[in-house]
Design brief:
2 copies of one chain form a homodimer.
Chain A (H helix, E strand, L loop, with lengths): L1 E7 L5 H14 L4 E7 L4 H15 L5 E12 L2 H10 L3 E6 L7 H6 L2 E4 L7 H19 L7
Parallel strand pairs in A: 1-2, 1-4, 3-4, 3-5
């Protein structure tokens, strides 16, 4: 599995940073994981950088681009795992900043995924996504992973 | 607002502990907040303790009991805020342990709330709930609170 996370903004909070690095480390036992941080700006400027990264990441047309959006599709953890295991190709996740994603980014994405109907901070969304990717790998590999 | 969180198990991870305490501190500027930790056991033993706490907390029949459950109702953050502000009485949230909530607890609750369709760790669920309560208070008070 080859996973890229395109995220607007940095994780500044030390506790979140520690936890995201912990999950990233666990994921890297089983998958390639790259995180690209896009500098905070207006959604259009951010959007251009995101779509340009997506174009490069999907140059061979083999990547699945999934943007996080509250109004997107809701998955259970096992449905999310099923989807990730079905996508043997590259997966690019996009996490917007405080002002959301531009229309261009939403159009570039193959899928809009909602972690929840609730609004989370950008840092929490990154943490949750990593935890769900790690959980998905554990489900795919049939490993025990405590709630 | 008078909020009680009945949670099975302790938060052991230092990063999660730090963040939950941070949000709890922020919530306490505007609301009474108490957290009661129930010792990990089987769902039935945990359930008896939870329902006994609920009975005491709702002795005057003025508390709203909300249990967190993946199969519960999904709210947006503003719907959640609306509900919290409508419940001027006491609110008791219940967060189960790794083995979930007993049927007795689900029956005791007035409502089952889903933070997401995804499964989170117990510690993450506690952090998310606190963040959403803090966000709800910010929405009710009309304060700016960054995503």
């Amino acid at each position: 599995m080859d996973i890229t996370i395109l995220a607007v903004g940095k994780i500044k909070d030390r506790s979140y940073l520690q936890k995201t690095e912990e999950y990233a480390g666990r994921i890297r036992h089983d998958a390639r994981l790259e995180t690209v941080e896009i500098r905070d700006a207006d959604p259009e400027t951010e959007g251009e950088k995101i779509t340009s990264h997506c174009r490069r990441g999907n140059a061979r047309g083999n990547a699945r681009i999934i943007a996080l959006d509250e109004r997107g599709k809701l998955f259970s953890s096992s449905e999310f795992a099923q989807q990730l295991s079905a996508d043997s190709r590259r997966v690019i996740f996009i996490i917007g900043g405080p002002f959301g994603l531009s229309e261009e980014v939403k159009k570039t994405a193959h899928e809009l995924l909602a972690l929840s109907r609730m609004t989370f901070t950008h840092e929490m969304a990154r943490l949750l996504l990593l935890e769900q990717i790690y959980r998905a790998i554990s489900i795919i590999k049939g490993r025990k992973y405590h709630k």
